[in-house]
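Task: sequence design from structure.
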């Protein structure tokens, strides 16, 4: 990992920023993380952007500097690598980060026994291990400054097991539970924690996971709703699709939820027009 730094984020928060002055966003090169970074810059935050693809992060950084005058630091890193995670934590130690958004993540579709084990384990590392490894020191820093926010990405699949997405759904159940517990622990210490549980969102996620989503929410909607819910709710279900899917599933006993969402996800994974 080779960081590329601009000047450090400004020391004095812009007025009205609840978690300013600076937000650290993982998964910022694409999809929901990118939309979160754009929305945060629009609101006046300075940013630290993390993902593997340096060029995409640098393009986004240039866009945000030009459009909003944001100070942006780019830290290319593979969150499946313990040493990259440790380096991000070292690189950000001196920065006044008030908000941590952990949007990096990926999934896989298929029968568990047929999927390559290495990829499933890497998913656990990126979706769960890196989230814990980053949240621990960052939460300590936020507690020390007596104010902060943490946004973790769960999913509609987090609330029950899902056939053909068994590992992915389990990683999201981990994040959901982790966020709910942390929220109660950290609230009295001035730190707000939010789990975000989207339904299908139109990003690169589907094609990378071997799926096709005929209906999907815009990532910008997810970003706006997530930020609006931070400090208010325990879990955000951004957009119409997530809310209606959750409402429908909530009518069913857990066994029924598992079957229903497995059928829905299998339908998306088996579409002939699935890319990737
Ligand atoms: N899209 C959906 O339908 C949906 C629904 C529910 C929940 N979610 C969750 O929302 C989050 C964002 O998903 P998305 O839809 O925005 O996915 P996406 O478009 O595929 O973007 C994923 C982001 O994560 C980064 N990333 C993946 N592996 C990484 C690694 N090893 N190290 C560092 N960065 C990594 C990618 O950047 P690089 O490739 O440059 O590293 C990219 O910026 C994920 O946690 C996902 O589980 C998505």
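Answer:
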């Amino acid at each position: 990992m080779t960081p590329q730094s601009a000047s450090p984020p400004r020391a004095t928060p812009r007025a009205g920023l609840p978690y300013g002055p600076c937000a650290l966003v993982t998964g910022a090169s694409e999809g929901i993380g990118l939309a979160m970074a754009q929305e945060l810059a629009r609101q006046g935050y300075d940013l630290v952007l993390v993902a593997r693809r340096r060029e995409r992060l640098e393009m986004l950084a240039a866009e945000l500097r030009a459009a909003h005058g944001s100070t942006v630091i780019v830290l290319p890193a593979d969150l499946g690598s313990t040493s990259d995670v440790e380096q991000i934590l070292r690189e950000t130690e001196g920065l006044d980060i008030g908000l941590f958004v952990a949007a990096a993540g990926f999934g896989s579709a298929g029968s568990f026994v047929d999927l390559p084990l290495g990829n499933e384990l890497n998913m656990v590392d990126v979706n769960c291990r890196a989230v814990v490894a980053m949240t621990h020191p960052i939460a300590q820093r936020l507690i020390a400054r007596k104010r902060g926010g943490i946004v973790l990405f769960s999913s509609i699949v987090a609330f029950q097991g899902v056939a053909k997405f068994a590992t992915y759904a389990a990683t999201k159940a981990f994040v959901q539970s982790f966020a709910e517990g942390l929220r109660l622990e950290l609230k009295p210490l001035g730190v707000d924690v939010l789990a975000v549980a989207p339904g299908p969102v139109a990003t690169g996620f589907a094609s990378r996971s071997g799926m096709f989503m005929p209906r999907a929410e815009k990532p910008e909607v997810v970003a706006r709703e997530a930020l609006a819910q931070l400090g208010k709710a325990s879990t955000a279900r951004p957009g119409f699709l997530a809310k209606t899917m959750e409402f429908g599933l909530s009518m069913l006993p857990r066994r029924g939820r598992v079957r229903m969402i497995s059928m829905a996800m299998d339908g998306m994974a088996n579409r002939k027009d699935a890319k990737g």
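The beta strands are 22-26, 46-51, 72-76, 97-102, 148-153, 191-196, 235-236.
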